[in-house]
Design brief:
By secondary structure, this protein is of the alpha/beta class. The chain has 3 helices and 4 strands; from the N terminus they run E-E-H-E-H-E-H. It has a single domain, classed as STAS domain (Transcription Regulator spoIIAA), CATH 3.30.750.24. A 4-stranded mixed beta sheet has the order 1-2-3-4, covered by helices on one side.
Amino acid sequence: MNASGMLKISIAGSQRHRYLMVEGILVAPWVAGLKAAVEEARAYLYGRELLVELTDVTAINQEAENTLLALMNEGVTVRCHGVFMKHVLEELARRRQTGGQKAGRK
């Protein structure tokens, strides 16, 4: 990731998983980059589970939260590190259970 605070997505894989490691600021216009990376990774799953790892996400907006929620609803596993992102994922899990799309930060 460079000093301008963009988004970095690294791809790795194992026999059981295909990983997208996400670092940086997850806001527009970079949410589109995450969506594109997910679609590309899906093309090469070969029976593996897709896992999005929010390794060092420092900011996230409503569009990104909605995108992560949609990915979770599609069966993508989303994991994170850090108190802030754990809180965000807990809120997304609540929204997923209730079917809500609007709760969260602006």
